[in-house]
Amino acid sequence: MRIIEAIAVLKHFCTNNDEEIRNELKLSPAELHGLMALDANEEISCQKLSKKMGLSISRGSRVISKLVQKGYFSENKLESDKRCINIKLSKEGKKVKIKIDDMMDKCEKRIMSKLKGEEAEETITVLEKLIKIM
Fold first, then answer.
1. How many domains is the chain built from?
2. Rounded to an integer, what distance in angstroms lies between the CA atom of residue 47 and that of residue 87?
3. CA spacing 20 to 30 A to 78: which of 54, 113, 131, 134?
4. Are 40 and 91 in contact (CB under 8 A)?
5. Domain ranges, residue 128
6. How far is it, in rounded angstroms, from Cα 61 to Cα 114?
7. φ, ψ at 89 (rounded to 5°)
8. Cβ(72)–Cβ(25) under 8 Å?
9. Which residues of 85-104 are buried (b: 16+ CB within 10 A; e: fewer)?
10. Tens digit of pLDDT for each residue in 81-134?
11. What is the pTM of this model?
12. Is 25 in a helix, a strand, or coil?
């Protein structure tokens, strides 16, 4: 199997896992990505979060607005610059983030349980190397 084919197969499995999470939590792909891009106690500007999600500022703003409407993000307007809004996970957002992490951990444990001894560590090393190369 070629590397690119293996990556496509892995992507398919990961997409299926993401889809299960999104369906259970009623999230769009972009909303799941937004929740995953923000750490539990992190507070950053909309612009930085959009960049972290790999989205344009306008597309990122729409995703952020939806997550604010759903109660997963809270906004903090800066006194020094009313145009700039910082985003952080709300109490409900932290609960959902924990649920997402738990579901991803379950998937990872299924994968790791099939690897023996040093295979898990070697697999992670190779995947990290591929990410750096790409």
1. 1
2. 10
3. 54
4. no
5. 3-133
6. 40
7. -70, 135
8. no
9. bbbbbbeebbebbeebeebe
10. 666 788 999 999 999 999 999 999 998 888 889 988 899 889 889 989 988 988
11. 0.81
12. helix
**Residue in the structure block whose two tokens are 């398919």:** 12
Q: What CATH number is attached to the domain comprising 47?
A: 1.10.10.10
> Which one, of 102, 30, 19, lies nearest residue 73 by Cα?
30
* Paired tokens of 115: 């690897």
Neighbouring-strand partners of residue 73: 89
Task: Calculate the CA 51 to chain-centre distance.
Answer: 13
Listed in sequence order, the DSSP H helices in the chain are: 3-25, 29-37, 46-53, 57-69, 91-113, 119-133
Distance CA 109, CA 99 (A): 15
Beta 73-77 vs 43-45: how paired, if at all?
Answer: unpaired
